[in-house]
Structures
1.
Amino acid sequence: MDSSRFRQIVGCFATGVTVVTTNVDGQLHGMTANAFTSLSLEPLQVLVCVGKSGTCLQQIKSAGAFGVSVLQADQEDLSNRFAKSQDPEDGQMRGAAFSTTPNGLVRLDGALAHLDCRLAQCLDGGDHDIVIGEVIDGDASESGSPLLFYRGRYAGLAD
Ligand SMILES: Cc1cc2nc3c(=O)[nH]c(=O)nc-3n(C[C@H](O)[C@H](O)[C@H](O)COP(=O)(O)O)c2cc1C
């Protein structure tokens, strides 16, 4: 099977959209990721698959920690902004409004939910690494609607 057929097939699995954020001595970075999932309850762990050729993986390894902001339905623009490769900026986060959590991680304003994670392990996954994070903190809004990704396009929940 070629990669475009593979993408077509796995694109049928609808996901939410996150921005994975890093802070390396004040150098902030963010990357849009939908290959995110909850992994373990004991210990509390999540995983995100991060491309080996991008900037984000090295930033996660350098920081030893990462944040995960789960995007809301109205944050498609942010998803597109963080899907473009860019050198880590000093405190800018591509113009996105954000706050810094007590653990020093970046939480995007308006996100539906957020997790602070300590890097637990990076496993080889072909052209991506499977990045496992131990969850150390987080929050979720009581209401709101998620941004979804399905068949290569953004989508939303039906009312
Ligand atoms: C909806 C969406 C989901 C994405 N999911 C992932 C993902 O899970 N893992 C990944 O490595 N890249 C993913 N990407 C691509 C990255 O966001 C993109 O390659 C980005 O430029 C990488 O940034 P960096 O090189 O600065 O780390 C996704 C892009 C979009 C638009």
Note: The chain is about 15% helix and 50% strand.
2.
Amino acid sequence: MSSLLIQNIGALVTGDIDKPLASADSIYVEDGVIRAVGKNLSQRADSVIDAQGITAIPGLVDSHSHPSIGEYTPAQNSLSWITNYMHGGVTALISAGELHIPGLPLPPDARTALSLALVTKRCYDNLRPSGVKVFAGTLLLVPGLSEKDFDEIAAAGIRLVKFIFYDYSLLPNGEAERYVRWAHARGIKVKIHSGGVSRSGVSQIAGWEIVSRIKPDIIGHITGGPIPMAEAEMIRIVAETDHYVESCSSGNYRMALVLARAVKQHNAYRRVLIGTDTPGGTGIIPRGILREVSYLSSVGEIPPEKVLCMATGNVGRAHGLDIGFIQEGRPADIVLLHKITGSVAEDALDCFAKGDLPGISTVIIDGEVRVAGRSQQTPPPERAATHK
Ligand SMILES: [Zn+2]
């Protein structure tokens, strides 16, 4: 049994959008699980981190990423991106489909799509680059899948399927709605690529009409990936439906601002998820989630502790995963961060509110310290946690 005690935390963000801040200054972890969150905890532990008064947040969960093979991304012919994202505070990645595999016929036929999902799922089950949890094997929904295929992905532990290449002219035959029923019957969530055509060139366009027909759980990159649906259609989805909506850092900034306003007006904070939609044509952006949190907090004028929940607990809840919270019984995925020297902000939360990025000091995944002292991908925080 290994244990870890984090003391002297300043602000503590919970990941729970209904109660984003905890009045607590310490976290006790045993065997990778958070056992206690409270004030002045003093359990004996194998190792102790003195947070020196800086902020603790749940590890960031990228709601929309595109892993392919290990840490290699064909999208930019680059290596090691997942480790670099971890240094940007990301402790989990949700795959929006492994569609960058070189030579993959687009759209794939049903057997190819199914095989790709199963192989990728099995590989990432066996591989955690720098400890990062990669939820991959997201099945790309194409015509011709059978209910048995949904049994097979459920048995493999796949929990997400995605509409992106499905030919919506086939909607009258009822197959797409059947896919949604088959997924839900097995506890699998459904995401849709919304907006205009993606880099692949063959993704299908989806706005209000398609979304209200198919009724997926999550509207992928509603503010653009990179091209959003019409503004009025996006607002209608926020105002008139219960769908989760993603805002990705690779999207349209103006639409992200429109989304922020609509979310405030309709009190839809619980339904917003933050992702990057990378790697892709926008590149590899280790600080992508931090930048989106900063944008929605400062320009979008949503309190930063709430926006952080959209990049942590909301994403876990929407995808049916137990990650994204600093709460008893949850995996100990924790990031410690603070203002960067020279920033006019007071602390990490104030950084986001003012549009600055904070510096990361410590990243912990399943109770294991992965970054100590400072991150390789942010400037150093003015004050860093110490670990002994
Ligand atoms: Zn995408």
Note: The chain has two domains: 3-58+325-387, 60-318.
3.
Amino acid sequence: MKTQLLKDEILEAMSLKRQYGVFNTNMMFLLDDKDKKLVEEFQGLCLEKEEQINGIHGHNNEDHYNWFEWAGKHGLINRTNNYPHRDDLEIGMKAEILRQWTMDIFDPQFSLSLGASVLCINPIAHHHEGRETLLKDLRDLLDGKKIGCICITEPERGSDAVNMLVKAEKADDGGLILNGIKCYNTNSPVADIAAVYAVYNTDDPRGTMIQGISHADWNKGFKAERIGIPSVPKVKIGKTIFEDAHIPPDYITGDDGKGYEILFEGLVPERIGIAALNVGQMWGAFSLAALYSTVRQQFGEKILRHQAVGMSVLAKYHGRLTDITMALLRLAETYDTKKEELAGIPATMNPLVAMASQMKEYSSLLYHELAYECMHAMGGTGVTDQTKMPHYQGVSEIAEVVGGTRNVQLLIGSRTINTMIKMI
Ligand SMILES: Cc1cc2nc3c(=O)[nH]c(=O)nc-3n(C[C@H](O)[C@H](O)[C@H](O)COP(=O)(O)OP(=O)(O)OC[C@H]3O[C@@H](n4cnc5c(N)ncnc54)[C@H](O)[C@@H]3O)c2cc1C
């Protein structure tokens, strides 16, 4: 922080430990003992790290890409995919959400970067087919030794992502040659490994889409330039350029239209993941405002006691946040129990696709509203660099667009209603 305005005891009242305390109190009746133990384990690791980075100074100033290895070592990058080299970790969507919430409260921009690396992990975990090259990538990404990114969006193809223009051609060695530009790829300027989509024929993207894995060190035709996104200044987001970029045969995860299936298969966990990120970061913003409201006094009273703060902001958003937290936990349980059963069902018929989109759309708007309200419930303190509130508020500004805007989610929703009526 540039200059400390608040007394030490007020800053201490908003420590990470106390933020986790607010979260844990709310989870008391929502989680079983096993889940609570897992949360405690995750939180213990983050509290150690908090001390090591010197709290807010580290969150404001350290390069969080240097924390990947620490997170990977402790299984804090991903909990939905099995680790090929470790079997001592709790795996599943529920475990993933609890991991995510812990990281979101700890450092919202770091959590966003971890999430983008997970989007590179997912297709490799499901489509390595025992190949050692890809298994090594999977181990390195899960361990945080390598940073990943996903390249779907293009300068001219955003919401209409399927109709992509980046071209793939078959190479003489059975691999691929890629040409074109992707953009908004979280982590790509620092990523070691990129999962990338392209098409052989732009007139038939569904039938000809590929997915491949590219490495920054050996792929000379792969480069990325950082673009500026002021809301998340610590996250490196890129314009990613493919110029005769070669993907060897061993690194093709989906060929001849299989890339399209992988793209859609990835959207459900991606959108549940973003919804989880929104909810976790809402707990971060809410906990800071709630803690501050009990230590800050104006007109001779805690600001919590002023109805405009205590009722119109804190109680109102506490209720909405609790509701969406319960809904997301239920969705995670449904995903864990039904995902195999629903795996082969087309996207338009798969209820998980609709539920993931609905949850992503609603949680993004709620996060934006809640972060703004909680920030201003803290007055001037809310906008200073003395707490992580501006970090939560920053991520809340991009929550809508990451993973597809509200209109794309609502488009999926309207198609779901059509299918639902046909099923009656
Ligand atoms: C911070 C950040 C991180 C990102 N990370 C990644 C990443 O890691 N990898 C990646 O590949 N991409 C990433 N993206 C890209 C993101 O997925 C796209 O920005 C998003 O899908 C929207 O595309 P667009 O920006 O081109 O907007 P456009 O598609 O141009 O949309 C502009 C407006 O038109 C509306 N619109 C578009 N189509 C329709 C329609 N059919 N009906 C109604 N309204 C419509 C949209 O809702 C929006 O309001 C990221 C973006 C940001 C900002």
Note: The mean pLDDT is 96.
4.
Amino acid sequence: MMYDRAFFDQGIERRNTACEKWDDRNVMGEDGIPLWVADMDFRCAEPIVDALKKRAEHACYGYPICGDEDREAFIHFTKRRHGISLQSEDIAFLPCVVTGMKVFIRAFSKPGDRIAILTPVYGPFTSSIECNQRIAERIALTIGTDGRYQIDFDALEEAFRQGVRHLMLCSPHNPVSRVWTKEELERLLALCRQYGVFLSVDEIHAEFVYEPQSFTSILSLAKPEDAVVCFMSASKTFNIAGLQQAMMISYRHDLLKAMQQELIAGGGVWGNTFALAGTRAAYELCDDWLDGLMAYLQSNLEVMKREIARQLPLARIIPVEATYLAWLDLREYHLSCAEIAQRCMRTGVALTGGTFFGPEGEGFMRLNFGCPERQLIRGIERLAAALQ
Ligand SMILES: Cc1ncc(COP(=O)(O)O)c(C=O)c1O
């Protein structure tokens, strides 16, 4: 199979497949174009489909084990793609990354504790904190003169000084699309060490980084004694979020154990027969699909910039360093996210409202460009019609 432009151009029909992005009628009508939920409208790599079919054909679906080969597949992938050397004992399995965030919160903090997040940030960071009766300490990112978001290190240190002992970082950052540099991560780590802060780092978007940026994993900087937990998953990378599997990684095996105990106490399980088969195939056999995808996304990024400049002259795209999610500053249109969403519903396109990521997102919308080019162009036309 050639994972070339033609492969990604063909997309895949997803309507009426119980698919959140296409089939949620509260968000858009039947003929709507979804540029919202963070999955992609492309066919999966052939080895994943084959592995799932093969597993399905073995007509017995009893309890599986997460075996050495599942860990090995992940270890080899992180070594190959990021040069990180992990040991089997550094890794534990989870149903998904958001479960991991909740387990991190529950294992290392207590109700009423304040947990720092850098906002605007992926909504479940806040909801995971609040549904566990902790308090989200929102440290707002600032926008620099170059239009890129920056960490307010002074505000963060002040929060630590005031007793905050947990930080949940998104790296690369959804929705503002920053790839945190080695220097920024080193500075964060140093602060966490100084104040005894537990750090969780969500690296689910690690593969979607555009040149000239390069990704630095927290795992390449953390020391064995650091209270650092990292979450990774094949779900975004290979478009298999519906399979539900993720990994938590830490050099502190006592932390991993505490999180596993918390997961078990809450009734959580890991090891879904199909997730294991699909994820192993993804990590072992699908680098060519991923490389083809990145070339396609890079091209879509240019198309999006061109079309937005042409059709939405008042919009500003926050520089896209990573992810397939663009953060659009629409504040010059003087409409709330709710108003923009209503107008988009009428013109037949769906984006994610900026306020899903926190109050700092008012007037912004997040656009998912992980789709065939023609769909992206049509969606932008409809967004422009909505804002007229
Ligand atoms: C930053 C980030 N973390 C986690 C998730 C969800 O991951 P999972 O489905 O593994 O819970 C998403 C999905 O959009 C995301 O953008």
Note: The longest helix spans residues 287-311.
